[in-house]
Amino acid sequence: MAESGGWPNEAKTFFGYQDECQIVINFPLASNILSAISDGDLSGVKKVWEESDGIGELCRWGIFLTNHDSVDLFFLSDDYKKKKLADEGGLMDKFGHEGSSSFAARLSEICIGNPEKILWAFQQQFDLPGVPIIYYGNEIGMRNAKLNNSPTDFREYVRGNFDWDDANKQIKDPDSLLNKIRELILKR
């Protein structure tokens, strides 16, 4: 598995001739799925997916929603989408650094805790024919860590401890977010 912070055409080089990496993480796809959560506009996702075409049959894109780093606005094609995602719930103000084009946020933070939006985002991820990668805690709706002081590294907001108490409650609840995501996975 390879991580490339570039556009699909740049990232495709990591596949080689199907003899190097078999999975390359698709960062532009993640940013575009996240920007579509508030309005359902998947045009950016479709554009990135079209640019992602043309890899070997033994290769796959790694598809994630959020991770241990940050959400990069750089990969959004227009200023409106960048502003919309950054302003959603004050994400850039709360979890970014001034002058930065990225912020640290878990999926539930971007969805403002709305389970329907979280499920919608997972459905988009699972509908694409790549390898889904789930960042720990997203499956139970974990929010960003509450820190006493503003961290030097804003990524600390998404690197908190896993909430085992909440996970155990959700395991027992057939209507929980965790079990609904499990159902989506089984349908995949």
From TrEMBL:
- What Gene3D superfamilies would the database entry show? Glycosidases
Please give the superkingdom of this protein's source: Bacteria
Q: What is this protein called?
A: Alpha amylase, catalytic region
* Source organism (scientific name): Candidatus Woesebacteria bacterium GW2011_GWA1_37_8
